[in-house]
Amino acid sequence: MTDSGHEHNGHEHVPSRQRRRFPGISSRAYEHPADRSALVALRRLSGFDTVFKALSGLLPERSLRLLFLSDSVRVSEQQFAHLNDMLRDACYILDLEKVPAMYVNQDPQPNAMCIGLDEPIIVVTTGLVELLDEEEMRAVVGHEVGHALSGHSVYRTILLFLTTLALKVAWIPLGNLAIMAIVTALREWFRKSELSADRAGLLVGQDLRSSMRGLMKIAGGNHLHEMNVDAFLKQAEEYEAGGDLRDSVLKILNVLPRSHPFTTVRAAELKKWAETRDYQRIMDGHYPRRGEDKDASVSDSFKESAASYADDVKSSRDPLMKLVSDIAGGAGNLGSRVRRGFDGFTSSPKDQRPKDTPPGDTPPKDTPPGDGESDG
User: Fold this and answer.
1) What is the C-alpha R_g of the chain?
2) Residue 88 has pLDDT above 90, yes or no
3) φ, ψ for residue 104 (rounded to 5)?
4) Using an 8 Å Cβ cutoff, are 299 and 226 in contact?
5) What is the pLDDT of residues 16-72, one digit of tens each?
6) How far is residue 222's CA from residue 212's CA, in Å, rounded to a whole number?
7) Helices H, strands E: what count in the chain?
8) 3-state DSSP call for residue 182?
C-alpha cells in the first residue's frame, strides 16, 4: 500500500498511510439511526427479497448497466488505475468481498452514485475526479462502497425509477400524488442514508480533514486557498439557527426535492459523529458484525431512530424545531411566539388590529381564568 508520489490527471499521490481494517463489520456500525431502522425492518420483512426480484424485471437496471458499459469508462488496472486501487482498498477496509464495478462518466458536474438491484455499480463523474485530490477522493470512494455494503443501491434504483414513473403518470388523477408521497418518504430516508455513507467514507479514509475538504470543494469548487473549514462549519450553524419560522418553512421546502442533505449540514454532521464515542469504539475494533445482523431487533432500531429525531429536535436551534420542542414540553405563550415568528408574511399585526382592541395579548378582564394564554 505504498505510493511512489507520481501524478495521475494532475493529482499528486500522497504516500499511503497505515489505516485500520474492519473485518466482518456490519453497516449497522456506521448507519444513521433513521437509516438503520428502515433497513433493519426491510431486511427482516418476510418475502421482501422475492418482491424485489419480481420488481427488478420492471426496472431499467439492465438498461443502465448497458448504458454505462457502452458510454463510460470502466475502472480497472488498465483504466483509471488509481481509482481502481482506491476501490479495492475501500472494499478491503470495509471487508466487502465482491468489488463493485465502477465507471467514470463524462460530466462536468461533480457527482457520484451507487445503483443496482442485483449487484451494485458505482459511477463517478469526470467533474468529481478532476476536482478532488487523492485523500478526498478516497473518502468519496469509501462513501460509495458504504452505500453498497448497506444495500442502499437497491433503494436508490427504486427511487430513480419512481421519480421517472411520477412524470409519466402525472396526467392520471391522484396517481402522481400517490407516487410522489412514496418518493418524498424515500428521499427523506435517502438523505439520512447519505449521512451514513459519509461516515463509511470517513472509516475508509480515516482522515476527517480530507472529508471536510472534499465537501467544501463540492460546495465551492477547487479553491481551497480561498476557503476555511471552520468558517464553512460556521455556515452550518448559521443555517440551522438563523432566521424565524418563515425561514424554517423555507428550509423544509428547499430540502424536500433533494436526495442529499445540504453540503454544510453534511460536514457538520460528520464532524459531530467523528467526535462521538461510537466512532472511537469502531476505530478501537468494537463494532457489530454482519453475522449478527439477523438478530438485530426491529423495535430497538425504531426506538433508536425515534430517540435520534427527538434529540435532534431538542438540540436544534432552528426556530421551528425549538417551537416543536416547547410544545412537547408544555411551554406557554406559544400563540404569541408563533405570531412573532411569522411576522412579515402579512402586514404588521399592529396594522391589522381593530381600533377598539387595546394593544398586547392580555385577555379582557371578564375572561374566566384558564381561557387566556398561560405565562407558565
Assistant:
1) 24
2) yes
3) -110, 125
4) no
5) 568 999 999 999 999 888 776 666 655 555 555 555 555 555 556 677 788 898 999
6) 13
7) 17, 6
8) helix
